[in-house]
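In response to reviewer comment 3 from the previous cycle, which asked for concrete evidence that the modeling workflow produces usable outputs, we include below a single protein chain processed end to end. The sequence was submitted unchanged, and the resulting structure tokens are shown without manual editing.
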Amino acid sequence: TFEITSIIYDTLMEVEEDGSLIPGIADSYEISEDGLIVSFKIKEGLRFHNDKPLDASAVKESFLRLMEEESPRAKDYAIIESINVISDYELEFNLSEVNSEILNQFAYPWSAIVEASSDNLRSKPVGSGAYKLVEWIPQQHIALEAFDGSHRDGSIKEVKILMIPDASAQINSIEKGDLDLIEIPADSLEKINEEKVDILRFPRNGIQLMAMNSANPYLEKKEVRQAIAHAINIPDIQAAVWNGVGIQIGSHYPPGVRGYIDLAGTYEYNPEKSVEILKEEGLHGKIELRMMLPKSYPEYVAAGQIIANQLEQVGFTIDQEIIEWASWLSDVYNGRDYDLTIVGHTGRLEPYALLAKYISTGSENYFNYKNPQLDQMLAEVKEERDLDKKYEIYGEIQELLAEEIPAIYIQTPEKIILTSKNLKGYKEYPVIVTNIRDLYFE
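The workflow returned the following structure tokens.
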């Protein structure tokens, strides 16, 4: 997983807690005036865990592997036309089109720099990161030790990652002092003895929502979507389904991402207002909707059942259908054969990756929402290279989505970390990484 690989490997750029970027193994970088060439100078003297040099040629070979057609991440790097090695520690990436957030692609954990001769990355990973693999026993543990050739050292010299699938067993172990750091599910939070461990909570980079299919003539009407929004009590859903662990949101934008605006409660819970709107539209008691819920995600099924009950209380008729995940993907997401559905979306460093789902002609617009104003804003924000202007547009997009409500934005889930009382320095990032080098014992 990326939690593990991020410990062993390095990337050209690195992500800070707030989503900003700093050089990783890159000493410096430059983007050409036309935005089509990204140049990097690599820190000199770096080596892989097998003592082979980490230079510009090694970086090029690693990206060529990532860009191969069979690579699961090839499409993320499709705009790279060629990679030129300029000198031992300098190289440039030539792009087919401008991407104002291209540097993010060099910071994701899957852009890790891999030693070219490594033939079994799954069992014998060779990186240049702060820790190197000592032992891996599947289903038992992974042992790591600090790598003294890293460009950023950690203070903890030895790390053992134990495979303990049962949350209760993990909690018992950390409270007894046998573990120093674990992640727990929301429903375990109330069981924790705060005198024995520290509890840390962070917003994840993702959102959970109820999508509404605007291809349905009723749901195409903003007034009907407003009536739905007023009928739903989101805090009640959070308490019942997620044990109150989560951050209520008002648009398709996670709180931990740069530029977030708190728009929760744009449409407050007001079932009387919901009924009033439906009566004004002559639709009270006349709308029947199909709610498709993915069986593989019990929390979404539970949330859907609560929402269905709340909607029925104001006059909607909701037909619920629980389906297999494969059917959800084929029929709901790709086939767009639904009226309502509950699902989650994982974010990226660039907000555009989430928001592009609303492009009218986009293949991922399973909302079937069409808004020329939003299309124009998304086109502008994609091209804008001035970061202040870019995030000003992102703010305007959030406000538009909060007002137009093509979906009911429920919450961003929280990540709950427990640490031993003397372990300090844990940081959460908007990408899937675990930087053990941040940690230290008091």
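The domain at 206-412 is CATH 3.10.105.10 (Dipeptide-binding Protein; domain 3). We consider this sufficient to address the reviewer's concern, and the full set will be provided in the supplementary archive.
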